[in-house]
Amino acid sequence: MRAEAQQIASTSSFPEARATPSPVRAQMRPFLWPALVLLAVFWAAHFIVGAIDKPYFVGFLYGMGAPALLLLLFSIWWWTNRRIAMSYRTFGCLAVVLMGLAVAPFCHRSVLFGLATEGLPRAITVLTLWTLVASWTGLAWSRLGLLVALALSWAPFTLIRVDGLNSDLKANVSWRWVPTAEEEFLATHVQAAPGGADSDAHPPLVLSAGDWPGFRGADRDGVIPGVSLVTDWESSPPKQLWRQRVGPAWSSMIVIGDRLYTQEQRGKDETVVCYEASTGRELWAHGDRSRFEETVSRAGPRATPTFADGRIYTLGGNGILNCLNARTGKRYWTHDITVDAPAKVPLWGFAGSPLVTSGKVIVFAGGGSARDLLAYDAKTGDPAWAAPASAGSYASPQLLTIAGQRHCLILGDNGLTAVDPANGNPLWQFGAAMPGAPRTHQVHRVGESELFAPTVTGVGTARLDVARDGDGWKVTEVWSSSRVKPEFPDFVVHRGHAYGFDGPTFCCIDLAKGSRCWRDGRYGRGQVMLLPDASQLLVMSEEGELLVLAADPDEHRELAQSQVLKGITWNHPVIAHGRLYVRNAEQMACYELPVR
Length: 596
Prior knowledge:
CATH superfamily of the largest domain: YVTN repeat-like/Quinoprotein amine dehydrogenase
Helix content: 10-25%
CATH class of the largest domain: Mainly Beta
């Protein structure tokens, strides 16, 4: 009996080489099933979660949390499994980690995040499957074979590059030796004269009817008045006037007369560019030595320029605030808002477009101090005032007048904050605090004193009533609903209804009740603008498809569609002077629209 016990013990110390492998297989098979079940669940969830509709940030958190949980549970099983020899457990663990560390220096920088979230689960899977194969076959060279198998699992990461992720967090993967869209643009681009020429010889540009002076229009509500589209695009499609490459950015465009302004990343320089709107010809460019880049959305500025009184105001991804001559690009003044606040650069970069009102330019800096909102003299750049708001926000400050009082509103992780734009004095704050929540939306007026605000009281939408209360203000929640869960695309409001995106699917909300009228049309996380004169919705899908929908609360109706861009498109479209302007991180185009 003692001899038999010694034989069983010796055969259970896998994976040392054995003369008779069958006892090893018999002893080992029952003790690998926990890891196999764990991996089966992980990979099944990986593909299922990737295929279903889910909130963007749920997917983001799942993508980081699931590999971490797999690593934790697998490590517990691996190090407590006494039926596998300690020497092999140590060897396997070191092989996985050291092989990954050895590969990392040879990978493109865009892949490093994926080494943890994608590479490590694959390596753990290879380790488990190889252990299973070795236990069944009794291989004498199991450790050498494990090294080879792990090398093959890690090696492909050295060959690829990730050019960002879409809103479903699916990576856009390319061979690393293929030039990026930015590199192709820089290789062929001939830059116009840099901004900075003397502007005294020419009068300043002025705002005129049909111009588009700021992010989502003059009122930041996405409304394009005076336009009614012909929707028979089979016989009268949009006519392309020009198309060209641009530097990466998620900025939108503004149009003043025959000049178009946007922001781009051009290598190491963050650039404000002025184009001739009718031809796409570059007129001037102003560059700052700054580059913002992160794994999900890649490189480039996020905010949109603002025009006021002959000047262009821009905020870069790292917090550089510029005031430029709109005609020539000459810089009048500049500030680094991370220093003035002080504040750190947000995870996805500064995204709020400057607001110019009453001789002041207002920007959101965040940081959680008494200087979250900063105002500067629009002419001189001198600091005007600072006010507390929220630690973080990706929304833009906007101006509304309620009960005769002008409000500067900003939606952030402390809720909705209102201050007096003249002096920064706090007026009121309302909503649920969600520290770290990436609130991104603009607020919409739905009555003389009522507002529609996505995500202000949590995950969902709400209607608020704002009224004077003696010397102060009283904000009351009329209703809140979690039926529609907005993410980063904005809404438009038309005749008592809101239209926008609930995740990747378009929807309509009854603003009187807070109920959802319909949810239909999968356009990814795109953008929507309103043509109120024709009750039409202009939708730009995430894949670059332009659609015209009926602004109809009774049903979802597509009236026209055309593919106008290729690639991920999160930038807001613009219609100015009868022309449509669209762009993404790779290209920009101009179309003549069929109008009534």
